[in-house]
Amino acid sequence: MLVGGGAEEKQEQLLIKAKQKREVLSENARFEQIWRSRKGKNEAVEDEAVHDIYRLYDVVQVDEEEKENEVQEKEDIELQDHRMMAQYLPLLREVLSTAAVEIEDNIHYYTSRRAFSDDNVYDFYAVKGDPNITETDSASQFPLVQVDDDDTYYDGPDDSEYETDDSNAENSPFSEYPDEKTPEDEDDVVSTDHLMRNPSLRADIPRTDLKNLKVKVIHFIINMRIQALTTGWTMQIHCSQMTRALMAMRKFTMLVVLAMKISGNFVFGPMHRILSKTLSRRISHFPRAITQSPFSTLANTAGEDDAVLLKMPPFDYTPPPYAGTSADEIIKKRKAFLSPSIFHFYDDPLNLVDGKMQYLFDDRGRRYLDAFGGIATVYCGHCHPEVVDAIVSQTKRLQHATILYLNHAIADFAEALASKLPGDLKVVFFTNSGTEANELALLMSRLYTGCHDVISIRNGYHGNAAGTMGATAQSSYKFNVVQTGVHHAQNPDQYRGIFGSDGLKYARDVDEMITYGTSGRVAAFIAEAIQGVGGIMELAPGYLPAVYSTIRKAGGLCIADEVQSGFARTGSHFWGFEFHGVVPDIVTMAKGIGNGIPLGAVVTTPEIAKVLTQRNYFNTFGGNPVCTAAGHAVLKVIEKENLQQNAFNVGLHLKQRLNSLKEKYEIIGDVRGRGLMLGVELVTDSHLKTPAKAETAHVMDQMKEMGVLIGKGGFLGNVFRITPPLCFTKEDADFLVDVMDYTMSKM
User: What is residue 590's three-state secondary structure?
Assistant: First the structure.
């Protein structure tokens, strides 16, 4: 605290700073006067000296001759600008991490944008309130720079934007002395430069210092905008690269302020939802106005230059602070110690550390709507309390005992699981994954029938071991190893297939395959009711009954791969095959069976199950007490919370909204699936059905930035896979569609 002469010294410093500010404003007033006089002069001598006047009012012309004389000066200043950007961008990434890449692109874009005509270089500007500015100019992506008659020379926020419960004069960027501190305070403040070089220290900075840092960022932007105007009338705009880049972000200052009000934190999680359309240099391939449906979560109807605020449904859960390994360190460890074959989604990968029901949280505490469900694996919801309690309770008593001993967990779950299946499907074998389950099913089929030939469908996926890799019919999942005895039938694809929705015509291919490609007898036919990895592809109606009949006539068994479509996901039925009115001989399952716990199963008839008694069959972890306790809890939750009906209702609502989006955007070629297993296929040409692979990746990445996680798949990589937890709500569905809508409108 200052006393005596110290107070007088501080007052003197304040007066000096106030005087300096008045001088800056006076300089800006002089610029306005000169600028207005130049406008009048332009109108008076337009025919005589149009190329000798810098028209700051609409287009600033820089003669080529002057440009050549100032090349060296320009290069020097550009170097300074690049250094400035090198300091500026790291701080920007900390303040506005979700928009940093896009803004960096804009900086590159606006610093390199030029139009050459008549040996002149044009820099584009417009001025608010000018009657000569046309509607087209107003809609331009180039900046509108406000010049008023008062002291405000930048398009920034007013003081009201900073009115919060804990606000004070020192927190406002419009205070004349936002950074004044007592000597005692100075020792406690982390310098801005130090923070920029060490962004990981952010979490250790006191809240008051974060406020000071936010104020510095706002002041930096405002000062740069003022500098852009004051340098403009001195004819130096052509070498002011950084100022042009900042002026291009006409909404940026307001967005930062709005982010503060929303988040109250230095890490602006929801910033992605309020990015102005003017911050993007990309223009929609299929531009249409953003409309507000009756179910929309849009806070307002967006105009051409309005920011759009999409509201994620409220959720009463706050994850505990994360103090673990950073994303950068995790990436380093993955590269050093994990297989180079593994990959991750997104250019900026997520470090997920927490999950609750249909939401996931990253290491900064930001919430995401999980519409992928860990690849159709989380059914009850992340960390569902009843599933967690079952796991913890069993873990405390007995973690592992092989099936050589008795334990109630495996027996109780087997009984409950068998009760969910039709006919004589009563014998359960537990595995650790879907691949293991399908391998075992193929093994039993070949042993039971005495045949080796298996038929599967093109575009299907059944696993990555020796046998299942053969049944898988996607080249990207097939290594160059022996995969004999498998035939891939024509895919009954209703969108791309040659027979459309006529399942009987597709089924003839299986009959011909048996006739011409085998001895006339086969071991099995394996298929998913809805192809998951293949892009949520529904089999054409009538296909499965016809094929099952053909296979059984050839002595084969019918295997239903329910790894992704089982356990009530399709809504209308508990199992995907039930929709087609068939009963398989063997059913395989995994993923949703354990809600994230590694667990799989094969269910078949007692007669077929006996085949494994010919030799010893054993699986160490098949039927682990903890895993089976989790699986049993999943069945109870699905029934108790009526998740099958919820999947049907919410899935129907979501599919209707996605179909409405299909009518709005030509890039959406097909919407398909049932319940909460839906696919959206993107194409660049609706007639040729050209896959929009790059656009799919872009929209997926942008939706992540806006808080929605979806998957993608399909053989061509152009299908969104929407397989959320079955606790997904209609409000969640509306938010997902609104985010997809907004993202596509900005492509």
Answer: coil
Dihedral, 287, 290, 295, 301 alpha carbons, nearest 10: 180
Distance CA 177, CA 169 (A): 9
Mention the CATH class of domain 327-380+643-745.
alpha beta
List the one residue out of 202, 7, 245 whose CA is nearest residue 103. Answer: 245
CATH number of the domain at 397-640, out of 3.20.20.370, 3.40.640.10, 3.40.50.360, 3.10.580.10?
Answer: 3.40.640.10
Mean pLDDT by 10-residue block, N- to C-terminus, for the chain (747 residues)?
Answer: 56 74 62 51 42 40 52 63 54 47 45 36 33 41 34 35 37 37 41 41 45 50 44 33 42 45 36 33 32 51 47 91 91 91 86 96 94 95 97 96 90 97 96 95 96 96 91 89 91 95 96 94 97 96 97 98 96 96 97 95 97 90 94 97 97 97 96 97 94 94 94 94 97 96 92
The 3-state secondary structure of 70-90, one letter per residue: CHHHHHHHHHHHHHHHHHHHH
Q: Rounded CA gap, 376 and 676, in Å?
A: 9
Distances in whole angstroms, Cα of residue 565 to Cα of each of 245, 259, 345, 497, 538 = 50, 40, 23, 21, 11
Q: Would you tell me how many other CB atoms lie within 10 Å of the CB of residue 357?
A: 20
Neighbours of 629 (CB within 10 A): 28
The type of residue at 379 is Y
Please indicate, yes or no, whether the overall pTM of this predicted structure exceeds 0.85: no
d(CA 369, CA 735): 9
